[in-house]
Specification:
Elements (H helix, E strand, L loop, with lengths): L12 E5 L3 H4 L1 H14 L2 E5 L12 E3 L6 H14 L5 H7 E2 L1 H8 L4 H8 L3 H13 L3 E5 L1 H4 L4 H14 L10 E3 L6 H6 L16 H11 L12 H9 L5 E5 L3 H4 L3 H9 L3 E6 L11 E4 L8 E4 L4 E5 L12 H11 L9 H11 L16 E2 L23 E2 L18 E6 L15 H6 L4 E4 L1 H6 L7 E5 L4 E8 L7 E5 L12 E4 L6 E2 L3 E7 L4
Parallel strand pairs: 1-2, 1-5, 2-3, 4-13, 5-6, 7-8, 8-9, 14-18, 15-17
Antiparallel strand pairs: 10-11, 11-12, 14-21, 16-17, 16-21, 19-20
Helix pairs in contact: 3-6, 3-7, 3-9, 6-7, 12-14
């Protein structure tokens, strides 16, 4: 997030898109609801489903799946055409505005309606409201990123914020809501194939030399590595022979699971490090038991870039160890003497090699976390990014055209499927589906469908149906819901026994390599009587 969670309540207008906030980020959603209820903040929700947050919204725009670039360009067309953009911010803080202006010229409200299904007047009204804000915050989540155009979607939201001068100010910003705990921290620590900690590029010789010195090694690779979504097909083809997976359950979470299962089965050696025997762990040659968050010391970096202490509350069971201890022990057995006494010693190393963490210490975050970047121990941290300038000077507008989703409906597969989460379960259910009370609330998978589509395909609420895509099929119970839009169905992905990802498309965003979980074509059919 460019701004803080608390900053949400300082916004005049909040635009939420691609985020079922009340179910996926229930604590954070209270800030949005409080702002609307008690501070007269105006709310725009842009989502294909009638999510709970629409009940608080001034405007709810319902786009067709996978059309985000079109409606964002449509808002910018209206803002520019009506001279509502922040000319001073554009002139002093940005570049390439004319290219953006030329691109969005064709995205008239009529043209945008033909792509997105959003009525013309709603596009105009939402554009005027967002542009009218002294401080406008954009919140988004994986409904924006999990597309073959996910990178384009994020850049387009950044365009919209810069167009109205909503960066570097309290109550503004472009604010991604991270999908899992400490995702921000994992990225910060170099959990990406192209960077070291703090997003220092592996192709940067100075960064490599610094890391070589810190780790007492030579000849660190100067090539970008592979993403997870690139590794799995390579395992299928035999180009990758072994994998070591920590804290992930890809045999529920990966797209096109039938293909993924074949890929993992084709490995010569699979190691899993986790807290439970997940679906993927059951396929592994070796399972290493690790401690859970409550059983270890360390830090988390949350969605607002706040680095916070995590303190051990329980002893881990049996032979379970901290993840860092397992990693260090394996490194030693492979010939590298990776020795640490505790997690604080590791954090001290992080601070030495990571400019954005350089001023953070355990003592400083004993009671309250610090937002990076924090370049030295006198620095208070940076709650709001880009207050004076962007990291590389001026913010660059990107002229982005609309590209349809990778997969379209047809006569054989007439419905679109989108996937997501429900309030009572988390990700692949590794922990939540072992919790009795949560299983009582959400015991099995379901297919959310509109009343009109249920009538069209002769289904009743509670009927069991077979849902099939071009990759696989599952069986689940139908749930007729006002959340659903005609022509689309929604399935949560928590349930391994009816895994939504047997259906999803593994087509990737060319930049981020994230799969298009949010759009694929499916068909529904009745189960044959036994």
């Amino acid at each position: 997030m460019t701004n803080t969670i608390g900053d949400i309540e300082d916004a005049d207008v909040i635009l939420v898109t691609g985020s079922n906030t009340t179910e996926n980020h229930p604590v954070l959603s209270t800030y949005v609801k409080r702002a609307v209820k008690f501070k007269n903040t105006r709310l725009i929700v842009i989502d294909p489903r009638r999510i709970k947050l629409t009940e608080f919204a001034d405007y709810w725009l319902r786009p067709n799946l996978g059309t985000d670039v079109a409606w964002i360009n449509g808002l910018m067309h209206v803002i520019i055409a009506e001279n509502l953009h922040n000319q001073k911010f554009i002139e002093t803080r940005t570049s390439d505005f004319e290219a953006l202006k030329a691109m969005v010229e064709k995205f008239t409200p009529d043209y945008v309606e033909s792509i997105t299904g959003i009525p013309v007047q709603q596009i105009i009204d939402a554009a005027r409201l967002y542009a009218s804000a002294k401080a406008g915050a954009i919140l988004y989540c994986m409904g924006i990123t999990q597309h073959t155009t996910g990178t384009d979607n994020v850049k387009s939201l950044a365009n919209l914020a810069m167009l109205c001068g909503n960066l570097g100010i309290p109550g503004g910003g472009v604010n991604p809501l991270r999908g899992q705990n400490n995702v921000q921290g994992a990225c910060d620590m170099g959990g990406l194939p192209n960077v070291y900690t703090g997003y220092q590029k592996v192709t940067d010789e100075a960064a490599r030399k610094k890391m070589e010195k810190a780790w007492a090694v030579t000849n660190l690779p100067d090539q970008v590595g592979l993403t997870v979504t690139e590794m799995v097909p390579m395992a299928h083809d035999g180009d990758i022979k072994a994998m070591y997976i920590i804290g992930e359950n890809p045999l529920v979470s990966d797209p096109d699971l039938n293909h993924a299962e074949k890929s993992f089965s084709n490995l010569d050696f699979l190691v899993l490090q986790d807290i439970f025997m997940t679906e993927t762990a059951q396929l592994a040659d070796v399972v290493l038991p690790s401690a859970c968050f409550a059983e270890k010391d360390g830090t988390f970096s949350n969605t607002e870039r706040r680095v916070q202490r995590v303190r051990k509350a329980l002893q881990p069971p049996g032979s379970a160890k901290d993840d860092w201890e397992i990693t260090a022990e394996i490194a030693k057995r492979m010939g590298y003497d990776m020795v640490y006494d505790n997690s604080e010693e590791i954090f001290e190393e992080i601070a030495k090699v990571t400019p954005s963490y350089a001023g953070i210490t355990y003592d400083r975050i004993e009671r309250c976390g610090i937002h990076w970047p924090c370049p030295d121990t006198k620095h208070p941290g940076t709650p709001i990014l880009h207050t004076a300038q962007f990291t590389h000077g001026k913010g660059v507008f990107h002229a982005i055209d609309y590209i349809p989703p990778a997969e379209q409906t047809d006569d054989q597969y007439p419905l679109y499927l989108t996937t997501g989460r429900v309030l009572y379960h988390y990700h692949t259910g590794t922990m939540t589906r072992r919790t009795e009370g949560l299983n009582e609330r959400a015991p099995e998978n379901f297919v959310e469908i509109s009343a009109a589509d249920a009538d069209k395909y002769d289904f009743k609420d509670g009927d069991k149906a077979k849902i099939a895509s071009r990759r696989g099929e599952i069986i689940a119970k139908l749930k007729i819901s006002t959340k659903a839009v005609n022509g689309s169905v929604f399935i949560p992905f928590h349930f391994a026994e009816a895994a939504a990802n047997k259906l999803t498309n593994a087509a990737l965003d060319p930049v981020s390599k994230i799969p298009e979980y949010k759009v694929c074509a499916v068909k529904l059919s009745k189960l044959m009587a036994s």
